[in-house]
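Slide 14.
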Amino acid sequence: MPSKGVKMSDFLIEKEIKKLVEKNLEQVVDALFIKEIVDSKKIPELTQATYYQGKVRANFSGENLVAKDGRPLRIIIATDQISTHDQVRGAIPFRGQILTNISNEMLGITEKFIPNAQIYAPGNSAVVISEDCAPYMFEMVWRTHMCKSSTETSLYYHYVNLGEREFCGHFLPEGLISNGPLPYMLDTPSTKASGEGEHDISVSPGYLYQHGIVLPYEYGKIAYMTGAAYLHVQNLFAKKGIIIPDTKFELGKTKQGTIITIDEVLTPDSSRFWEAKDYKKKMADNEAPTSYSKQFGRNIGTPGQPYTEDERFLIGCRYIETYQKLMGKRFIPDKRPPLQRIIDDVRQSLAQV
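Slide 15: predicted structure.
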């Protein structure tokens, strides 16, 4: 939905989006690209850093990466890779830039409820400089609807596929329907897989306490802060005609003991966004809600298999449409060559902190 004062003519139209994505299908940043930058030592500041590549984000930290005020730093580069069902399936043009820019705006909205690790982020970039923190080994997942999903951590999988009526410590009534509202907002934490071949598991808070993953008072604080942030953004987007049926937060603790968010917040990857205006009709017709989230990518192609070029094209177009829909403004692509944009943004960001 356009922001106040923004006209639909100010947005990229479908024809322009398709042309942009088609032209940039090969101008993507993936894990191999990041590794080549590291091995080539084209960013001197990273030569002594510890490098960890996640499914989407590359992380750099180390004793030589310290802010002027003494805080340890973590450099995060969002690649264009997309993963579903715990597997990387390809790279989508501008995806890293889109997710980072949405998250940056959401962090600004939610920071009055829960602080975040971000220290500096250059405009329109996929690079973020954050405070390096000790992560909590679980994700805080909130749900107000039972979203249809094929992932094994989802409420839908446990309730419909397995027939369970207890989920993450909540006792659920009969009669819940796919994509329908829940009796109340559920906190449904999930563990973080710590090794190859392991998978995230949805668990109760008691499980987290028993396994030493988080202390009860810490969990209470995390639930209070993230729950308030989620509800606040839900209310803001409800005014724009958007439903946010679920979301997740990743948390960490600073050296001073402050609990903060350490990853993207309320993006199409960490949350679902549904069109409100046709939600009731879709439900009545037993159809899936109109969605602006990574679920679109999960539903394309064969799970576990790399995306085809045509599939990457479709997903790329959808991400740009999603950005414009959620942010209410025109998407401005970073058209610099991938190598230049990463080198320039990392070095310039470090100079700022």
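Speaker note: The mean pLDDT is 94.
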